[in-house]
């Protein structure tokens, strides 16, 4: 009888201890996984603060030892702690692309830019001007450069100035070196007058 009481008592103590342990584990898990509004806000604020801020930045971007492009900017903000990391160029920049023997292929200047690292996508804005190796000038307010697809495009108004013509329209599809290009919706073609001597 005393043995049954001790076994019953031990079982109750074990059940109570097990219950307390289970409750403690559940509380611990809940406290670790609970995203309180203050914690979420703090995490979001950290993600919105650049991890790096550089001024008068200049860099050569290479691939397998070959220079792909030269980047010059007065200010760079690096947001690499985000789920979707990007670099912001709030004062714009100048990008010079090169071919395999380091000859300049094209240049792009803008007043604002964002580079989405995962997508390898540049969003260039505000007074964008691009020039290809033949001296053809492209002017628009927004231009996208997809490094993976090796193409440049926009849906915005575009003006292309060649040696002979000024072509305006909406939408552009081009190779990343701007050698091949097409305006989607041409609105005007004007001949450029040249001074004859």
TrEMBL record:
One of its GO terms (cellular component) is plasma membrane. It holds the Pfam family LptC. GO terms for molecular function: lipopolysaccharide transmembrane transporter activity. The chain crosses the membrane at residues 12-30. InterPro entries: LipoPS_assembly_LptC-rel, LptC. Keywords: Membrane, Transmembrane, Transmembrane helix. The keyword Membrane applies. It comes from the Bacteria. This is LPS export ABC transporter periplasmic protein LptC. It comes from Plebeiibacterium sediminum. The gene is lptC.
């Amino acid at each position: 009888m005393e043995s049954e009481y001790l076994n019953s008592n031990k079982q109750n103590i074990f059940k109570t201890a097990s219950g307390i342990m289970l409750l403690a584990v559940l509380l611990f898990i809940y406290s670790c996984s609970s995203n309180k509004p203050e914690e979420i806000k703090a995490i979001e604020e950290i993600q919105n603060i650049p991890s790096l801020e550089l001024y008068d930045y200049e860099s050569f971007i290479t691939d397998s030892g070959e220079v792909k492009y030269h980047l010059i900017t007065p200010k760079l903000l690096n947001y690499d702690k985000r789920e979707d990391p990007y670099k912001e160029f709030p004062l714009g920049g100048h990008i010079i692309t090169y071919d395999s023997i380091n000859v300049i292929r094209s240049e792009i200047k803008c007043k604002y830019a964002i580079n989405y690292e995962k997508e390898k996508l540049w969003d260039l804005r505000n007074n964008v001007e691009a020039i290809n190796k033949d001296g053809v000038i492209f002017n628009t307010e927004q231009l996208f450069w997809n490094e993976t697809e090796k193409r440049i495009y926009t849906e915005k108004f575009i003006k292309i100035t060649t040696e002979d013509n000024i072509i305006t329209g909406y939408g552009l599809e081009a190779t990343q070196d701007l050698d091949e290009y097409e305006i989607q919706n041409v609105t005007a073609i004007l001949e450029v007058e040249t001074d004859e001597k």
